[in-house]
Amino acid sequence: MSEHVTPSFFSPHERYSLIIVGVFAFILGVHGYNQYFETSKQSATILDSIYHAINLFLMQFAAKDQLPWSLELARWLAPATLSYTLIKTILVLAKDSVTTIQIKKLKKHCVIVGLNKGSFELACSMVKHGIKTVVVDSNEDSEYLGLLNKQKIYFVAANPSDPVVLEKIKTDEACYLFASTDSDTTNLEVIHNAAYQKRTSIINTVCKINNQSLVRALYNRPLFSVNRPNFNSKIINSYKVTARWLLNEFGPDCLISDIATRPCINIAIVGDTPLIGSLVQRLVEIGIYGANTTLQITVLAIKKIADEDNELNTLLLNEEKLEYLNIKKVYLKEPSIEEFNKYLCARHLNCSYISMRESDNALMALQSFLDMSMSSPVVVTETENNETFSWLASEFADEKGVHFAKTHTVTNSFENIFGEEHDLLAQNIHEQYVAEQTAAGLTTMDNSSLVSWDDLPEALKDANRNQADHISTKCRLVTGKANPEPGEMQSALSRENVEILAQTEHLRWMAEKFLSGWRFTEGEKDAVKLLSPSLKPWHLLEESEKQKDRDAILHIPVMLKKMTSKKVVR
Questions:
Q1: Which one, of 324, 255, 318, lies nearest residue 296 by Cα?
Q2: Beta-bridge mates of residue 156
Q3: Could you give the CA distance from residue 110 to residue 203 in angstroms, rounded to a whole number?
Q4: Using CB atoms within 10 A as the burial measure, which of 310, 377, 417, 446 is most buried?
Q5: Are residues 73 and 215 in the same domain?
Q6: Are 281 and 315 in contact (CB under 8 A)?
Q7: CB 139 within 8 A of CB 88
Q8: Residue 244 in contact with residue 469, Cβ under 8 Å?
Q9: Structural domain for 40, as ranges
Q10: Per-residue pLDDT band at 313 (split at 50, 70, 90)
Q11: Would you say 137 and 113 are in contact if contact means Cβ atoms under 8 Å apart?
Q12: The overall pTM is greater than 0.90
């Protein structure tokens, strides 16, 4: 295994410059010695000139009297090039030795495997929280290396899936490990290797998986579903995390003041990133804004992406089961007003989302919406380049209804990746459920989900998160506020509103189940076969099932009171 702390002795620019200067000095030396031998009438061959030109780098000069200009230049340029190379190499080696010693002494630090925009943002966030951080990546020429140095973040250039590397960077003494390469396989290898290290303290590990189907499969595997001594693990899909944050902060219920009275919500999503698929899925999961409100989503994909197709096709298959939902997807050559006019009607749109890799495409899409005289809100997600995104935001700062969401910066933070605060409401929902079921005389033998939050399978944690995230939507529907006072919410829960919100909750629950592969059955519930008799419209539900949803609504003020006492804002 080859491994070193810095990416290389020289940057790509330095390497190319030294090679060019060195070759130039050598050519000048050969040419200069040829002229010198001819002028001094000495008998010499081209090989003699080459030999003496090489010796110039070693400060061995074998000429006297008047020298040709090329040899005069070469005899200074050649040793200067070699001297710079040697001095820089010695300094880097010395620095590497010190850094290696520092890494070996680290404890309770963070290890990030894979260097990209998201992991760089996380590394900076960890440093802000006073946690020393080591980044491991096999790419020695990453664009983020200079930025890491400025933030005093250690960097190790090595094969991240090599277990020896994890040992050398003291992963067994670390408190946090984030596997964030672009390869799902590599990320799984890293977490697997860390799971079998001997350790005396707890490590919290997060494995980034891009393939959503793989995420669902891994939820049931022991590596992520069974707790180990001193080892906590969880999976995240960065696009899913981003979509969750985006709709919590800039969801239709945040942007449309009278959403509760609208019979249909029309949403346009434009983009060339995998986020558009996750955003559609998230809208289907929690985009229920009333018992009788339909959701019309138009997806304008600028570039055809296989992952997006798979996600969207899964959603389209469920449209017949979800009566409130209608999804249309088309592919565009570019985000132009001509293309938009073919598929969108500006006066019917209620809100729009733009998710582009590059700021120029984001600008074209945004300007096209404005040129259509669209008055509804538009949300632009963060592009790959922070500087151009900031410029874009400043260009449209005076445009009413245009919002710029710093999705990379916010979602790749210590709080979002390792923190638990954003899950407190979900935990509270689960704890209340366990208390009610236990009071009814049930045990884990009857219901395997009657365990602590830490022991709860990730799929069920997601279900609680979805329910928690939709509480702010329910609060807005009846109070106009995402975070009303508990008493204010209690006063708003008239019998009619409780019934409306209970129907809304049932729709949200059905969407979540259908997306997870559940199907309707006339028989009893079967969690293994993913069958449920409750997957049917509200008016066909048994009264006992309806009451479960009503009870969940009536419990909202109690949860709001608990969250207020903990000073948690959703």
A1: 324
A2: 136
A3: 9
A4: 417
A5: no
A6: yes
A7: no
A8: yes
A9: 12-98
A10: low
A11: yes
A12: no
Q: Copy the structure tokens of residue 472.
A: 């702010």
CB 152: neighbour CB atoms within 10 A? 9
Q: 């850094």: which residue's tokens?
A: 99
Identify the pLDDT of residue 6. Answer: 43
pLDDT of residue 8: 54
Tokens standing for 461? 């944690």
> 261 and 397: one domain?
yes
Does pLDDT of 254 surpass 50? yes
Domain membership of residue 469 (yes or no) is: yes
Structure tokens at 180: 């964030």
H or E element that contains 561: helix 556-565
What integer pLDDT is reported at residue 209 of this predicted model?
A: 94
Torsion of CA 295, 301, 306, 307, to 10 degrees: -50
Q: Which residue has the tokens 């969880």?
A: 234
The interaxial angle of helices 556-565 and 458-479, nearest 10 deg, is: 100
Same domain for 352 and 226, yes or no, is no
Task: Give the position of tokens 């070996």.
Answer: 104
Q: In this structure, which amino acid lies at residue 122?
A: L
| Same domain as 511, residue 549 | yes
Calpha distance 356→279 (Å, rounded): 13
Longest C-alpha distance within the chain, in Å? Answer: 113
Q: Sign of torsion, CA 317 321 323 325?
A: negative
